[in-house]
Every structure is written in C-alpha cells, then in structure tokens.
Amino acid sequence: MATTNLTTVEELQKTIDNNDMVLIDFWADWCGPCKMFGPTYEKISEKYPDIVFAKCDTENAQSLAAAFEIQSIPTLAVFREKILLFKQPGVLSEAMLDELVSKIEDIDMEDVRAAIEKEQAEGGK
User: Fold this and answer.
1) Residue 42 neighbours by CB under 8 Å, 6+ apart
2) What is the DSSP string of 32-83?
3) Where does the Thioredoxin domain lie (predicted)?
4) What is the mean pLDDT of the chain?
5) pLDDT (tens digit, 9 = 90+) per residue, 63-90?
6) Residue 116, C-beta contacts closer than 8 angstroms, at least 6 positions apart
C-alpha cells in the first residue's frame, strides 16, 4: 500500500511540512463512492512514489475532517509546498486523477506565491 493514514491535525501538519506534494483522500467506510475511488487512488499512488498519498477516514478522524470543513465525501485535497492548490468533492477517474497530479507537479510555485502575496496586499487596503 502506497498510501498513509492521517488521524490528527498534528499528523497532517507534519506531513505537509515535510513533503513537497501531499494528496489527501477524505473518505468513510460507509460511503459507496469512496469505495469506488479508493482503488483508483491506490493505483495512482503507486505511479508517483515521491508524492505522499494520504487517506483520512472522516469517521475516525472527525477533528481533522472538521478542520478541513469536509461536507461531502470523497473529497480530495492537494498541497504543494505547503499551499493548498486543490480541494474538491467527488470521484475522479484514473485518467483525471493522473492528469491532476501531473498538472500540479507542473505548476510554477513562484507564480502561486506571488499571486498569494498580491492578494494579501490588496486585501489589506
């Protein structure tokens, strides 16, 4: 299994702080779509060994799910260089998930940080 389980906000923060790219699948055992997405998530995780693919069982880690304001599952969140770049509920196909990972790998993070700084500066006026 190439995925890791997250159960606390502290584990999440450590994982994000210590890895360049982190994907988190928020799911629950009773969720049919989550069970459909799980094998796809696992398969793609095998393709990208340098990326952390984490899973958060929303039933067993309710404080973590609450911190992310998870209202629908499955929800996928993607961090790169400690910045949340993607958060969306729903099932992705294997091709869509693979394309998402590739696109996030290709993002120029200097541009992202510059955009965030600009937004923060404009918000402070």
Assistant:
1) 1, 2, 3, 53
2) HHHHHHHHHHHHHHHH-TTSEEEEEETTT-HHHHHHTT--SSSEEEEEETTE
3) 1-121
4) 93
5) 999 988 999 999 999 999 999 999 999 9
6) 83
Element (H, E) at 95: helix 94-106
CATH number at residue 66: 3.40.30.10
Q: Which of 56, 57, 49, 113 is nearest to 80 (CA)?
A: 113
Give the active site residues: 31, 34
**Distance, C-alpha 117 to centroid of its chain:** 22
The total of structural domains in the chain comes to 1
Classify 99 as helix, strand or coil.
Answer: helix
Provide the residue range defining the domain that includes 40.
3-123
Dihedral pair phi/psi, residue 27, rounded to 5°: -150, 175
Please write the tens of the pLDDT for every residue from 19-62. 999 999 999 999 999 999 999 999 999 999 999 999 999 999 99
Residue 125 in this model has a pLDDT that exceeds 60: no
